[in-house]
Amino acid sequence: MKFEQRMYARLKFLDLMADLYESAFEDFFHRVMVTRYPNFLDVRTHGNLGDQGADGLTLHSRKLYACYAPQTGGASAVKTKFTKDLASAVRQRDGQFDTFVFVHNDRRGIHPQVATMLSTADSDHPALDFEQMGTRHIWQECMGLDLALAEDVLGSEIPVKPTVYGMGMDDLAPLLQHLKGLRAEADPLMELPQVREEKLDFNQLRGESRDDLLRGMRHTPLVEDFYAGGIRALEHDEVARGFRIFYEQVRREHADPDDVLWQLEMYVLGNERQRPQVHRAAWVVLAHFFFRCDIFEAPPSDWSPTGLVSVQP
After folding, report:
1. Which CATH number fits domain 3-154: 1.10.287, 3.40.91, 1.20.120, 3.40.5?
2. What's the pTM value of the predicted model, to 2 decimals?
């Protein structure tokens, strides 16, 4: 999909999510996952059996999904639902899953008490892993679909039209706000984090693109500070996953590394011209995810820019 199509699809997705609660949310979640993963089982309630603690199962990754999408409800209601679903799944589906995924419709991210609840469950059930899946994660699954399948899931044609978007991923807006006050030039005495320039060589990034990434790298500790601790750390992982999915899509469509970076820049900023400080902040974001290997490829350990393979003694 072109950038404008992806942005249109995201707006359509968010519009849908705003009105999806309870069974309607579960139906949409099933539609996304069945389309995305052939091995996903959309579990339905059946008579006295109920759903045995699962709203979905993936056979290969052995994940069990439990949905909770009320129109209203506080953290205590969420905890009650989570505890009930987990107990039911452990009792009735023992040996069928290794990861319990709590799926919710909170667009603002996960509630602090829910994060604590997941951490406690992880300690209480050492044989299981626990994950949460909210709006960001469901959108990332939609991003993995081709155009025809995305149109089917969203129930809407995704047109091609020259629309201008002033912002790319709105999840990045707080981070850009945090970064845009940085100085145009970093302190020349600031220690530059260790950079494996082999990755720049391996991905054929040269000239201005290479210089912009290296300049941005001087400020990436600000990104680490922004995402440090608790819920922000979970958000960091989700944003990184989104970058990876988007990168893999555009890499299949564009052979030139500069074109890939241009698409990634629009992913952060949108396709509207931005003020210089916002543009600089976007390159700090790109440098951060580049050097932690969420975008572009890490060279093999035996690769060298000269093409000679190093031999280990």
Report:
1. 3.40.91
2. 0.70
